[in-house]
Amino acid sequence: MHRTTLKILLAALALMVPTAFLTAASAETPHGSRAEVILEKKPSTGQPYYASLDGWWGHEGKSQDTGIGSTYLSLDASDGHGVVSEATIARLHRELGDGGNFDALRVAFVPFSADGSNERPVVHKGENAGEAFRWFADLGFSSALNGNKNKNDSVAVVSTLAEYTQWWRAGRPVQAFTDKLGVLDVASDGHATASATPQGRSLLDRWPAGTKISLVFYVSDGVDKDMPQVPTVKVGKDGRAMTAWMTFETVASPTNPVRTSGGYQVLTGAGTGPKAAAKPRSTATGQDQGGQAGTKPDKTGATTQPGDPGAGSGSDDGGLTGSLPGGRPTFYALLVVLLAGAVSLVTLRLRRAG
C-alpha cells in the first residue's frame, strides 16, 4: 500500500512541476521575433495596454462585425511599465534593425509554424516579399485597416506571388469586389467583368475559419526590379529575414458567411490587453493618461498607478502566485519543497514498515 502511495505521489510530482513552469511561459513573444507585434483599435500608440486580443478586421466595434472601427497594425514600443519615449522607440528600432525608419517595415502573412521558420525564413539578396512569404499585402507599420458598410467591402487585398504576377502581366487592371468577394476588372467606362487575373483575395475571406496565421512585419531594403511595387526583403546576419510577428486564429463573421476570416483571435506575442498590461503614462511626468486619478505617492515618493510595478503590471502574476512575495519564483520554490517533503515522509514510512 505504501509503495502504491509513493508511485502516485511521484506521478503527481512529474505532472505538477512541468505544468507549473509551462504556465510562466505563456503569452511570450514568439521565439526569434525581434519585437512584439500588437493590434490596436485606435491610432497606433505603441502601448500594449491597448492591444486588441480579438476583433474584426476593419470592423471593430461592439456590434459583432458590423462596426466600422479601424484595426491598426502596431508594435509594443513601451518600456514594459507604460512609458513610450524617444529612448524606448530608439531601442525598438535597434531591435528591429530597420535603420531607424518604421517605413522600412512591410507586412506579410504565413501559415503558423511552431519553430518560427515560416515567419523568419531564409532569404537571399534581392528576394521579394512574395518569394519569401506565402502571402503579402501593401501594408506597413501603423497601417489602418478600414472597413465600411458596403456589402462588397473587402478591407485589404492579400496576394500570393502567383496571383500578383498574373495581375501585373495582365496590365494591372483596376479591380473591385462583388458582394460575395469575387474580384472584378473595372474598365475605364465603369463596366465590370469577372477577373481572370485577380491581384489577390480579400483579407476577409483569404483563409478558412479556424486557420492559424502569423502576421509578419519584415524589414524591406528596396523593391523588386521587375515589379517595383513589391518590396524586397532585407537579409539578416544569420541569412534569415529580419522579422517580428504575432499569430492569430481566423474567425468567421457571424453576420456574413462569405467572410470566413473576417475576424481574429490573437494567440501569441500580441500584448495582453488592459486587464494585465501596464497602464499608459506620459513620457515626461510619468502621470496617468487616463482612467483613475488622484494616485498617491508611496513611502519612497514614487507614484503607483494601476499596472505599475507597485500595483501589478502585465508581467505580474495573478491569483495564488501573485499573493506571494516574489510571485511565481517563490511559488515554485515552495511547491518543490512541499513535494520533496512529502516524498521524504512516504519514504520514511516505507522504511519503518520494512
From TrEMBL:
Comp. bias intervals (Polar residues): 253-263
Alphabetical UniProt keywords: Membrane, Signal, Transmembrane, Transmembrane helix
Region (Disordered): 253-323
Transmembrane segments: 331-350
Positions with biased composition (Low complexity): 273-287
Composition bias, Gly residues: 309-323
Secretion signal, residue range per the UniProt entry: 1-24
Domain of life of the native organism: Bacteria
Protein name as it appears in the record: Uncharacterized protein
Species in which this protein is naturally found: Nocardioides marmorisolisilvae
